[in-house]
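Table 4 source record.
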Amino acid sequence: MSDVVQLDTTKPNIARVYDYMLGGKDNFAADRVTGYASRVAAGSWIVVSVGTTDDAELLDRARGSFTLSAWNHGPREMAAWLAGLTLAPPGMSEARRWISQVGGVPRANEGSWYILCAAAVKPG
């Protein structure tokens, strides 16, 4: 039996956060959000938005349309990025629902592209 360690890129890792803070390239979204949040003063607002889809074919087509990398982060990843921050109402939500203060994240497998967003304040 081998001891295989799984790399979880959805949670920040201090080595990758440090890499980000030094301007490195070996880090992921969770590391960048954590690194950014560590640099701002208590009471500062952080706003995050990310496009996401459950449709693999749509994602492949979108990736082919971008000149830069296209990432597909979901609600679970965004929640991990914002851990330790105080979310503003209505919390993490689809952008159009957040703006109208209705809130809510689309159900999985709806087969469409949507924008997740959240605003949070650094406590302290």
